[in-house]
């Protein structure tokens, strides 16, 4: 549980840093983004493996039955929100070509994220890799592809929980997915979920220390930015 | 000796006295070298981003975040007092790069000088390359200490004389004037890098140089600005598959066909340009297998190499990652021949260092002239030197408070855990905002330049 909280905190921190780095002069730094995404990926794996360990015994039988609904509906809602946000974000601010590849690369999420409710994501990431170089095309199209793929995979079983790292090779996890997972996680958890660890001294705005609502605002703004 | 009124406003110079006497030792041994402060210059408005001595050591260039370059010159040794080494004074200041805006990508291009590299001197003028994230410039720094006087058609102030008033003719002559140092951009090498330039390195043929960004390395000719050759390209076809970036690159000091580049994964690749036009396949790959006992959450980040430097001899190269300095023999690829821990006590603090972004700091390293000592920076304004022969190391501090005139730098010690002895500093009281990222060692003498955030310190060994 402690591990989970710590991992969650680091994930939030990484997301915040990634968002913040785009505001810097000089634009997105490839090396920094790569490092942040590596940490984010490790944190996510840690978080999810800790969560799996905690939830595995009771959930395995029930999740199969549950999975069609939660998988289809929340992701779609979140996708719609993210889509709307990102199209808004992209019109005023045309993404630089090279740095756009990075966020597009984020389409391959660490969605390879093994999680009971999001199992189908993994498959989707591989199909998206082919279309991943539609990096020049706004994310809307990519998401439409995902939705199509997703519907065909509703029968997935949770065995995919332990994702082979090959799927996780995407350097830039899909920020929207991560954020969506983050705030859905936060909503599910108690309001005390935002970690109580001491705030990073260098950061002025520390999402981890705010209430869940503020975190939501920050994260939604981050999605818009991407 | 440059008169005081030439000292530019960029640097406010506080001069400390240096003890002068006797001989000095060419081969530095840390046990007998005592360092004293000879110059501390405060950059009033900006953060120093690079420091580099020229090939003779007479000039020291610094670049800052505001795009300015300041060059210090060592005053010529007084032949009478042959035991004293000259002090450094400001020689020239110029604005190398300006902030730019990339309209296509809607991105601002920072004017911060990432690297400066000197060309060897071929004539009276000095040349250096300075680069920001996107553009490299070749600057010519020349002195003017004479000017022509006695024109027939012009007055001294430049106004034209009425030709009817000219009754005699004279030949203009050169007369001495106050020294003026001029910097002019001779070449601008632009538009060749999509990503941010992190290194430039001049080839030993003194005709070509390389520039490296996160994914590509380009080869330029110093005379030709409208094209460059791409010699390394590690960009994957699918950016989602990106796993490593180039962090530093350097040409071999003697072999003009050889260069190395380091990666964010802790590997160094040596490439031979004779093998093929595109050096994507390395000739040698230097990589040390990770110690499984040290594996942690942040292992991947701290193994990223922030600097790579060849030794003057060309036999060895040194790499700096977050916690250590490694020396590699070019003939052995599977592990370094020497490893020095810079601040191992930080290994347990990686999470906090991630939070305050210090884990991303890119420290540089340097060799002394004889390749016997290596130096690198740390936090709390500490810098470390490692003697390769005696295996001794020393930690020194660059701070104004502790350096009174005529005193020698006292070695510092950080107490990692347990009881703190007197004069030791505990890890928790280190100031992580005070970091020394850039250091340089004079190519021939025991003079070092150490840059804290906005102060430049020049130390030399105490001669007695």
TrEMBL record, chain A:
Signal peptide: none annotated. InterPro entries: IER. Belongs to the IER family. This is Immediate early response 2. Residues 147-156 have a biased composition (Acidic residues). Residues 55-169 are annotated as: Disordered. Residues 126-137 have a biased composition (Low complexity).
UniProtKB/TrEMBL annotation, chain B:
GO terms for molecular function: protein phosphatase regulator activity. It comes from Myotis myotis (Greater mouse-eared bat). It comes from the Eukaryota. SUPFAM superfamilies: WD40 repeat-like. One of its GO terms (cellular component) is protein phosphatase type 2A complex. The keyword Repeat applies. Keywords: Repeat, WD repeat. This is Serine/threonine-protein phosphatase 2A 55 kDa regulatory subunit B.
